[in-house]
Amino acid sequence: MKKIQEALQNLEIGLQGPLPGLKAQLRMVTSPRPGNKVYQEVEETALKAGVLILLYPWKNRLHLVFTRRTARVDFHQKQISFPGGRQEKGESFEKTAMREAQEELGINPESIQILGRLTPLYIPPSNYCIYPIVASIPSRPDFRPFPQEVAEVIEVPLDHLLNPQNVKREIWTYKDTQIEVPFYSFQEDKIWGATAMVLAELVELLRKAFP
């Protein structure tokens, strides 16, 4: 547990300094890339969302939680994502991310400690700009997924994501077009798209946080 606390402290410090940014995100972008605009170009016109990257200890390992979206949501149906959603008027992105985590997974916002932000990412297909909020919680939450939005809760150990052997590439046919897709492989799941791009920046910071 002491090593986990030290790693979280190192990560929090890293989040306050210069971030790896777009260079890290692009390591996991699909090819061809769905648009070339960066978040600074669309901040005034894009829809805005906060997403929560929640770290917690479980079985002596740090984990991250993801959700598999249902077919009933408006965007990115059936894909694996972080809990999150559209920012409401007057909310900070931190408040948005925690509210959405409570609505989607039943996580108590009062138990969440915010560590910092990653670089925002623009998603052209949905015209959303997402603002990733990194946070921790002292113990594994008692997840209560909202069935309208969450088809499955997926918990991934951080050391699995840090292993380069779990980063793979495949050629997929997506919307009648062949694309090269980099993804994080976990059991039968493939974490790709915007979620993988956000993860790429987090992983780079985590490599420094875990000596």
Gist?
With 211 residues, this protein is of the alpha+beta class. The chain is 28% helix and 34% strand.
Could you outline the blueprint of secondary structure elements for this entry?
Blueprint: H1 2-16, H2 21-25, H3 39-42, E1 47-58, E2 61-69, E3 80-81, E4 84-86, H4 93-105, E5 113-117, E6 121-123, E7 128-136, E8 150-157, H5 158-162, E9 167-174, E10 177-186, E11 189-191, H6 193-209
Parallel strand pairs: 1-7
Antiparallel strand pairs: 1-2, 1-4, 2-3, 2-8, 5-7, 6-7, 9-10, 10-11
Any descriptors?
single chain; 211 residues; alpha+beta; Nucleoside Triphosphate Pyrophosphohydrolase; eight-stranded mixed β-sheet; three-stranded antiparallel β-sheet; 11 strands; 34% strand; globular
Q: Oligomer, anyone? A: single chain
Strand content: 25-35%
Assigned CATH superfamily? Nucleoside Triphosphate Pyrophosphohydrolase
Average residue-wise pLDDT: 92
Number of helices: 6
The gross shape turns out to be: globular
What separation lies between the terminal Cα atoms?
15 Å
Structure class:
alpha+beta
Order of helices and strands: HHHEEEEHEEEEHEEEH
Radius of gyration: 16 Å
Helical residues, percent:
25-40%
Counting structural domains, the number is 1
Kindly report the CATH topology.
Nucleoside Triphosphate Pyrophosphohydrolase
CATH class: Alpha Beta
Biggest sheet details? 8 strands, mixed
Do you know the CATH architecture? Answer: Alpha-Beta Complex
Low-confidence stretches: none
Number of strands: 11
